[in-house]
Q: What sequence folds into this?
């Protein structure tokens, strides 16, 4: 059991202080995760702004996005996976499903931003 947020007072566990310690750590984690997601979203959007209407294969999209994030070698792999996860989590098969991206595999495939895709595309 992880006890780093357990606060002791007079030899006993202080329940209220422990809950407050955990709550503060949880709130910080949520803010950091949301900030990271927003930063990744902005980087991916910037790539599509530069290559408006293009279908970009996933490895290229990851690389272009990570370059915009000024990622260092030691964090490249983990952030590459986060960019990939962001794109996949926001991809839908149809525009009406409300996703940001369309992902197609194979020849002529890649990732497209729905906002840059003509309305008659599926």
A:
């Amino acid at each position: 059991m992880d006890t780093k947020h357990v606060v002791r007072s007079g030899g006993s566990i202080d329940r209220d202080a422990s809950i407050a310690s955990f709550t503060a750590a949880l709130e910080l984690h949520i803010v950091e995760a949301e900030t990271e997601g927003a930063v990744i979203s902005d980087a991916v959007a910037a790539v599509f702004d530069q290559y408006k209407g293009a279908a970009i294969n996933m490895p290229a999209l990851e690389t272009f996005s990570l370059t915009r994030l000024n990622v260092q070698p030691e964090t490249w792999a983990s952030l590459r996976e986060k960019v990939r996860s962001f794109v996949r989590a926001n991809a839908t098969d149809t525009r009406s499903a409300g996703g940001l991206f369309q992902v197609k595999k194979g020849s002529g495939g890649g990732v497209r931003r729905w906002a840059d895709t003509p309305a008659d595309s599926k």
Q: What stands out?
A: The first helix runs from residue 15 to 50. The first strand starts at residue 8 and ends at 9. The mean pLDDT is 88.
